[in-house]
Design a protein that fits this description.
- With 159 residues, this protein is mostly helical.
- The protein has 9 helices and no strands.
- The chain has a domain of 109 residues: AhpD-like.
């Protein structure tokens, strides 16, 4: 495997601004449990092992149940998610995959029955941040778990 660059070291100014954006995106109207589910699902969709590892550990630290994390890949069929969580996951998926004709009105209208305008807007920034993480970590093949100590994720006992 070709050794990839450390993007954080090579572009420290941009990295700092990106981390500031990520931190700001966590200060929003959407509850942490939904942000955790959305982040894990986006990592799954983007096949980013580094991000999946990081987000699962964060969710565990925040108290998310293991069974719900196991069911996340098939959340539509699972009975473990509330209508509000389902709407958030549907929004995260469509904004991540962006259909050729854009986000369908039917989906937007369904999400609006569960989330306020502020929550949809804030959730969209969470989705943007998670997608950015998956793209940079996928592109540079960041080793899963390599930032656990720095992020406080070593406390999960998952390795």
């Amino acid at each position: 495997m070709t050794q990839r660059i450390n993007f954080a070291t090579v572009s420290p100014d941009i990295m700092k601004k990106f981390v500031d954006f990520v931190v700001a995106s966590k200060q929003n109207a959407v509850e942490e449990s939904i942000r955790d589910l959305v982040n894990v699902r986006i990592a799954q969709l983007n096949a980013c092992t580094f991000s999946l590892d990081m987000y699962v550990k964060q969710a565990k630290l925040h108290g998310e149940r293991e069974l719900r994390l196991y069911h996340l890949a098939s959340w539509r069929e699972s009975t473990l998610f509330s209508p509000r969580e389902r709407a958030s996951l549907a929004w995260a998926e469509v904004v991540t995959k962006l259909p050729e004709l854009g986000v369908p009105d039917e989906l937007y209208d369904r999400v609006r029955t569960q989330l306020s305008e502020k929550e949809i807007s804030d959730l969209t920034f969470v989705v943007m941040a998670a997608n950015a993480w998956t793209r940079v970590n996928n592109g540079f093949k960041t080793v899963p778990g390599s930032s656990d100590a720095m992020l406080g994720l070593d406390k999960t006992g998952l390795n």
